[in-house]
Design brief:
The protein is α/β, with parallel strands linked by helices. It folds into four domains: 152 residues, Orthogonal Bundle (DNA polymerase, domain 1), CATH 1.10.150; 91 residues, Beta Polymerase, domain 2, CATH 3.30.460.10; 75 residues, Beta Polymerase, domain 3; 237 residues, Metal-dependent hydrolases (TIM Barrel, Alpha-Beta Barrel). Helices cover 43% and strands 14% of the residues. The strands form four sheets. A seven-stranded parallel beta sheet has the order 11-12-13-14-15-16-17. α1 runs antiparallel to α2, α1 packs across α7 and α10 packs across α12. It is globular. The chain binds one DNA strand through α2, α4 and α7.
DNA sequence: GCCGTTTTCGGCCCGACTGTTTTCAGTCG
């Protein structure tokens, strides 16, 4: 059992305990335990099996949770979770995803109405029954109905990072089959979409068909949906991600890759182009319409070439102008991960990060970066132990000192992620902000303002002379919270005018900005940074999702400030007009 | 339930908003 799954069981148990109104500190311990398990570099299952090692050596795991971990690894669940699932319906965990309902309200609804499904909850709201309960009213019913609608749209999709880890895991298992040469993910994962509906894996090799048999017997397959000669489908993992595995002959691999990578809109447009040229394109190859003779099939390059086009990077294949651009030879040069020279938004234990300044710097150095910016939270984020003026300035001095010593082996800029308050003012005084190398401004509160008010708020924030970067500009949390409404184009244009860069937040839960907005902002003259917002050294690896997202926004290295060398980046920070 | 002891219990535990209220519980970050 993988750490991520173990962590999920712990977190679910904590959720259920919360509905059952159990001791809040115990719940907190379960949550801490979940995050400790998830961020532990070694597999918990391996540690449990090794008599020489102890899980209790992991901070946050004591005797109690050690026993729980044993149980989870052995049975996939634990006693407390099982007991609570007898008391509450298994859908209780789904109810927690409905915004506006917390554990207390859910417990009350269960107790009073004896319902167990989201559909029943919807009915309650429509029939205006929720308001019978204390402290619940018409506004809440409306909010819950809106939230249920959003929930339905989201369920059935998965974060890019989750789909990628599943693809990696399955690829490794299938590559171990003799006679399998390559396993390649296609579909929206290959295009780098921020969420993925299902996973397509293309298998080649003399014995590719045998990979299908291995796949359907894979331990984490929950339900086999179909298993034929060339294709097998199954729901995999507790989350039930649908995975389609296809065995392909090498001679038509390129055509299949092209076909299964999509997007559907891109393919329709490409096939229309083929028809106009007297050709037809399918997953088996590109053929002459007149005599069905094969033109190209083995590689994607050969197919695009036969259609008079250069190869189009998968990130661009959304039929949003890429085919025209390719035909006219003006596809953009896209940024690559190796061109990123620094990560300029991250947190440390000074606020809510999980590693020290030294550990974050060292992790960044190991990734080959030239520089980092440490941007801990400001005081408005009290739960994160945000910095007030005094602490922010003192911490900046400490960072400068370490930087001067050169002992960390990497250049460090002192920064802050300063909250943008409800009225657009900065959370910290100008004097304090002036002490810092780099100010990222972010919205973390009051996200339900009217669009006009939110636009004014952001425009006012841009007036701050010290603001350099607008952090996660739309505030969305994928599959969880929609972007807050505001006039993006106006804000992007104003940011461009004032020389404030827009962040492409590489956290797989955010990917904010996303491709379409990036393109729109670039058209307004905006420039960008790609940053991970890391709260742990391992989060630095999320940079690749940010780069993929930037590529989906048609960005090249010149659009992105943290592809600059350290000295140039430093100059850019300080050369504010 | 974890942690850390001036070692076996006590601390952990913030702050603002919202909607429903007549003084505040619940949610959220």
């Amino acid at each position: 059992m993988e750490n991520k799954e173990i962590a999920r069981v712990l977190a679910e148990t904590a959720d259920l305990m919360e509905i059952a109104a159990e001791d809040s500190f115990r719940i907190r311990s379960y949550r801490n335990g979940a995050s400790a398990v998830e961020s532990n570099p070694d597999r918990i299952e391996d540690i449990l099996r090794d008599p020489a090692r102890k899980v209790t050596d992991i901070p946050g795991i004591g005797k109690g949770l050690a026993a729980v971990l044993e149980q989870i690894v052995a049975t996939g669940s634990c006693d407390r979770r099982d007991q609570l699932l007898e008391k509450f319906p298994p859908t209780a965990l789904e109810f927690l995803k409905i915004q506006g309902l917390g554990p207390k309200s859910i417990a009350l609804i269960f107790e009073h109405f004896r319902i167990s499904t989201i559909d029943q909850l919807e009915t309650l709201c429509r029939e205006q029954k929720l308001r019978e309960l204390p402290r619940m009213g018409a506004k809440l019913e409306e909010k819950v109905l809106r939230s249920i609608a959003q929930y339905r749209v989201r369920s059935g999709r998965y974060l890019l990072s989750y789909a990628e880890s599943m693809a990696d895991e399955l690829s490794a298992a299938l590559l171990a089959v003799e006679g399998v040469e390559a396993v390649t993910p296609a579909g929206s994962l290959r295009r780098g979409r921020e969420t993925v509906g299902d996973l397509d894996l293309l298998v080649t090799g003399p014995n590719a068909t045998r990979a299908l048999a291995t796949f359907v017997k894979y331990p984490r397959v929950e339900e086999v949906l179909g298993h034929g000669e060339n294709k097998a489908s199954a729901k995999v993992g507790r989350e039930g991600l649908q995975v389609d595995v296809r065995a392909l002959p090498p001679e038509s691999f390129g055509a299949a890759m092209q076909y299964f990578t999509g997007s559907k809109d891109h393919n329709v447009a490409i096939r229309t182009r083929a028809v106009r040229m007297g050709l037809k394109l399918s997953e088996y190859g590109l053929f002459r319409s007149s005599d069905d003779s094969l033109v190209a099939a083995a590689t994607e390059e050969s197919i695009y070439q036969a259609l008079g086009l250069p190869w189009i990077p998968p990130e661009l294949r959304e039929n949003s102008g890429e085919i025209e651009a390719a035909a006219e030879g003006r596809l953009p040069e896209l940024v690559e991960l190796s061109q990123v020279r620094g990560d300029v938004h991250m947190h440390t234990t000074e606020t809510d990060g999980r590693a020290s300044l030294e550990e974050m710097a060292e992790a960044a150095r190991q990734r080959g970066y030239e520089y980092v910016a440490i941007t801990d939270h400001s005081k408005a984020l009290a739960m994160a132990n945000g910095l007030d003026e005094t602490r922010a300035v003192a911490f900046a001095r400490q960072i400068r000192e370490r930087n001067r010593e050169g002992s960390l082996g990497i250049r460090i800029f002192s920064g802050i992620e300063c909250d943008i308050l409800k009225d657009g003012a900065m959370d910290l005084s100008d004097d304090a902000l002036a002490e810092l190398d780099l100010v990222v401004g972010s919205v973390h509160s009051h996200m339900n303002l009217e669009a006009a008010e939110m636009t004014d708020r952001l425009l006012r924030a841009l007036e701050c002379p010290h603001l350099r970067i607008l952090g996660h500009p739309t505030g969305r949390i994928l599959l969880h919270r929609d972007p807050f409404p505001f006039d993006f184009e106006r804000v992007a244009a104003e940011a461009a005018r004032r020389g404030v860069w827009l962040e492409i937040n590489a956290s797989p839960e955010r990917l904010d900005l996303h491709g379409a907005l990036i393109r729109s902002a670039k058209a307004k003259g905006a420039r960008f940074t790609i940053s991970t917002d890391a709260h742990h050294p391992k989060h630095l690896a999320n940079m690749r999702y940010g780069v993929t997202t930037a590529r989906r926004g048609w960005l090249g290295p010149k659009d992105i400030l943290n592809t600059l060398a350290a000295a140039d980046f430093a100059a850019a920070i300080h050369a504010k007009s």
